[in-house]
Amino acid sequence: MSDIHGKIKDFIYSHQDELVKNLTELVAIPSYKGSPEDGAPFGASTKEALYKMKNICDGMGFKTTVYENAVLCADWGEEPELGILAHLDVVPVHDENRGNWATDPFQLTEKGGVLYGRGAIDDKGPAVAALWALNCVKELGIPLKKGVRLIFGTDEENGSEDLEIYKKYDRFPTNVFTPDGSFPVINIEKGMLRLLFNGEFQSGELVMFEGGSVPNAVPNHARARLLSISLGDVEREVGSIAGADFSVGDRYGHVEIGCGGKSAHASTPEAGVNALTALIALLNRVTDEPVLRGLGELFPFGETDGAALGIKCADESGALTCVLSKISTEQGAINGVVDIRFPTCTNLEFVRGRLTSALGDIGLKCRVLLGEEPHVVPENSKFVQTLLRVYERIEGEKGRCIAIGGGTYVHNIEGGVAFGAERGDTDYHMHGDNEFITVEELLKDAVLFAEVIAEVSGQTV
């Protein structure tokens, strides 16, 4: 290992306490999307996280710029050629799920070298690693031929409207990576379709039905309230739906049903248990609501590949995935969200057409919330090969390109790829309970990112 490699590692590891402190400060802010306010397009808490990061960056001596209280840029050097894009918004932790956490989700807690907290892996931990990587390069005086820009956004979890704001004011650097995925390098991302549906709902015996909290995750909770259905009738049918956890009880003359599943990212629904579709399957055994029956046929409990919709397909980029992620009923109406990730062998027009047609057949109107074709960056590009080379040198293992079920933060950035921060088959509980990153991985990420900065923007090291 050359002298500079050793200095980078020594610098990062000697500042472990500072990295953890900065992550603690960010995790303490519940920066999930809220109602727009004056000067806060994605809610007050996301703005608070943005300015917390700005204060940290200012203290390190970086040139900072904030665009519409939605995006923060921290620059070192002129004419940024490398951009590192991370997000400070997180998915919510709802009150009904807090009991599933072993720690306070908004208080970073270390246990045995593991850091628990919402945003630890997605994406506040990697954001702190990127920040300290650039600070390391600055403090060690590693010469740069071109500048480096850290870009911190606040709307990745809900459609990345923050990046549209950024593009109103500036262009992205020539080379961009986001630590919003997995190592080694993600160069192919599936296409995405997120669709909102609504329509009339003849409630009848079903006076309340709801579940799911975010559009891009397998829902781990759902509940319903029934009128004129006996408790015994429901209890007899619970055993017919295997794989989900049901609770049934009588409340003020109504039958209350709760269903617990297992949360997972919408790109890997096979890792979760969909509480919504499980409860629909149960309700369809004790009630006869036409729309609910139709949804049960289109989204069978346990199916994640869109077979019932006629869109099942797969290629080298993976298999299509389909998640019914949210539903609510109110005053004779039903609203819901479907999230689909599709491989390169199909296209947005086909998937959207089949889904809207199928939902239309059961009386539901549709509106596209997000529609994107697959994102592909050639493996032989100079930037990708540089990332792989650095990864192999530092990690001591073969680098490779991988395809994923969709959406990292660079999905609509030409030439952008994901580089970190998940490793191997580790389940970091991203978007779920007890989300974490290890202290060692936080430090290793910072070392890797510093090496990439030196390689891409500086002299060859």
Q: What are the key terms here?
A:
12 helices, 461 residues, six-stranded mixed beta sheet, eight-stranded antiparallel beta sheet
Taking all residues together, what is the mean pLDDT?
94
What's the count of strands? 26
Alpha-beta classification? alpha+beta
Spans of at least 5 consecutive residues with low confidence: none
Q: What proportion of the residues is helical, as a percent range?
A: 25-40%
The order of strands across the largest sheet is 14-15-13-11-19-20-10-21
Main sheet attributes: strand count, strand direction, barrel closure: 8 strands, antiparallel
Distance between the termini: 10 Å
Gyration radius, in Å:
23 Å
Shape descriptor: elongated
Instruction: Quickly count the helices.
Output: 12
Strand-residue proportion = 25-35%
Account of the 3D structure:
The protein is of the alpha+beta class. The chain contains twelve helices and 26 strands. It has helices spanning 3-14, 16-27, 44-60, 95-98, 124-140, 161-169, 231-238, 275-286, 290-298, 348-361, 382-395, 439-457, and strands spanning 63-67, 71-76, 80-87, 109-111, 114-116, 147-153, 175-178, 181-182, 185-189, 191-200, 206-211, 217-218, 221-226, 245-251, 254-260, 264-265, 314-315, 318-319, 321-330, 333-342, 365-372, 375-376, 401-404, 417-418, 421-422, 436-438. Strands 14-15-13-11-19-20-10-21 form an eight-stranded antiparallel sheet, with helices on one face. Strand 4 (109-111) and strand 5 (114-116) form a beta hairpin. Helix 7 packs across helix 8 (275-286). The longest helix is centred in the C-terminal third of the chain and has 19 residues, at 439-457. The radius of gyration is 23 Å and the shape is elongated.
